[in-house]
Design brief:
- Helix 2 packs across helix 3, helix 2 runs parallel beside helix 4 and helix 3 packs across helix 4.
- The protein has a single domain, classed as Rossmann fold (3-Layer(aba) Sandwich).
- The strands form two sheets. It has a six-stranded mixed beta sheet, with helices on both faces. The chain has a four-stranded antiparallel beta sheet with strand order 2-1-4-5, with helices on one face.
- It is built from seven helices and ten strands.
- Helices cover about 25% and strands about 25% of the residues.
- With about 260 residues, it is an alpha/beta fold.
- It starts with 11 loop residues before the first strand and ends in a 21-residue tail after the last helix.
- The chain binds adenosine-5'-diphosphate and magnesium ion.
- Magnesium ion binds next to helix 1.
Length: about 260
């Protein structure tokens, strides 16, 4: 390993991150560093705080304690938002605005004060739609699409700006397996080109070969940070649905034998 001074700036650096909503602590004491080029899976039972974590990391919701840096910059106007692509868990409810898939994806190329679309924008948007298997639907109205297709439009919108950091909240739920595989191939190409990926997953599924590291949340805290679970363990379902309290606090919250953070 190289000395710390030669380490590049982490893409995400969160220390003691806590989020309280309506007096309820949702996240507490989260320390998370994501290095450039990592593919990190964020796992945990429903309600464990995964979506809240990525939303607070990206400044979508305020944190109550702690600090977050993105590419070395504190959250705020100086953070390099144009280097970040984010796909939320579902299309926001107010999606009644008529727009075609191509228009939604092209809008991903407009950010901040850059009011002009970059050169080749149309081809880039078409390529991004092809990457998510929607090449034949570029002119379809998004609100007429199924939930899974809308999700794929949002993924294409995040891909089109060729982000250095891609954050995906359950990108493959409601998407059929062949499309998931195409999408994972796209993510794999981005990863090879150096993109850092943080992906919330319900199960690793076709993502498994890509995942370097898994962070498992449990009741708003990090319960595991290290190797991803094996497919066999995942199939048992225990690592993500095993929510009851253990009698022995030293016992890992999952069947895979890994080091568990205190
Ligand atoms: P996950 O993505 O792991 O399923 P979430 O981050 O969505 O979990 O939610 C974690 C917990 O925080 C849940 O108990 C959820 O009900 C609560 N929560 C999330 N957002 C809000 C909110 N805006 N208001 C109240 N409670 C919330
Ligand atoms: Mg969620």
């Amino acid at each position: 390993m190289s000395s710390p001074s030669t380490h590049p700036t982490p893409v995400i650096e969160a220390t003691d991150l806590g989020v309280t909503i309506g007096g309820q602590p949702i996240l507490a004491g989260i320390d998370l560093t994501v290095a450039q080029g990592e593919v990190l899976a964020l796992l945990g039972a429903n309600g464990s705080g995964k979506s809240t974590l990525v939303r607070s990391l990206l400044g979508v919701i305020p944190m109550t304690t702690g600090a977050v840096r993105l590419f070395g910059a504190p959250l705020g106007p100086t953070a390099p938002w144009n280097r970040i692509g984010y796909v939320p868990q579902r299309l926001p409810a107010a999606s009644g605005i008529p727009a075609t898939a191509l228009e939604v994806v092209t809008s991903g190329l407009l950010h901040g004060r850059m009011l002009r679309r970059p050169h080749g924008h149309r081809q880039r948007a078409l390529d991004a739609l092809a990457d998510v298997g929607l090449a034949d639907r570029v002119h379809q109205q998004v609100q007429e699409m199924s939930g899974g297709q809308q999700q794929r439009v949002l993924i294409a919108r995040a891909l089109v700006c060729r982000p250095d950091l891609l954050v995906l909240d359950e990108p493959t739920s409601g998407i059929d397996i062949p499309t998931q595989t195409t999408f994972v191939e796209t993510i794999s190409r981005l990863h090879e080109a150096g993109t850092t990926v943080v992906v919330i997953l319900h199960e690793l599924g076709p993502f498994a070969p890509l995942i370097d590291r898994a962070v498992v949340l449990r009741h708003g805290r990090v319960a595991h940070d290290g190797s991803p679970p094996h497919a066999r363990d995942e199939h048992a379902g225990e690592w993500h649905d095993h929510t009851h309290a253990h009698s022995d606090p030293e016992e890992p919250p999952s069947p895979f034998t890994v080091e568990v953070l205190p």
